Amino acid sequence: MRWGNGGYGRLGHREQKDEFTPRRVDVFTKHNTLPPTTVISAGSVSSACTVGQMYIWGKIKLTGDNWMYPKPLIDLIGWNICCMDSGNMHYFVGDDTLHVVPLKGYDSHHITEEHLGSKIISRFVLLCAFEGIPYLLCALGDGYLLNFLLNTSIGKLTDRKKMSLGKKLRMLKLAARDVGALREPKDKLEK
């Protein structure tokens, strides 16, 4: 879904008119409908979703035209994307490794990979900034959380730290001053 009046809020509808109520992006209404397992992410000036591959639209480059409707990213075809989050000009895509994807246009390519381990699947990624320093948090399927510093000028992840949260995570959420982690209910963990 997409809505907005002015600026980038209208992108995804192939037309430049104000939208005052949410509606589906036309590309995802007929043959390319979004299943319940779709991963969706919205940055400050662009949006992305997965329907077998990653589609992106909005302001993709610092200069040039915006993408008015979703287009697939060729370099990510075949990836099994299970989580994604957006920054200002970066997307973070997770499967069995964590990939940093810069938004440089239609030929976007990942510029770094962080291997999380062969048996650990990233369940959620969250980009956040504390005191002006950008961090990438990655919740793993085994109850651990990885914390990276992000160098936004070159797109590199540094200072990897691993923390145990004790239980499997359901969701990471950014609040005004902190990050909240929602854990699995106790009855589901005991099964």
Automatic annotation (TrEMBL):
GO terms for cellular component: membrane. InterPro entries: RCC1/BLIP-II, RCC2, Reg_chr_condens, WD40/YVTN_repeat-like_dom_sf. This is Uncharacterized protein. One of its GO terms (molecular function) is small GTPase binding. Pfam families: RCC1. RCC repeats lie at residues 1-53. PROSITE patterns: RCC1_3.
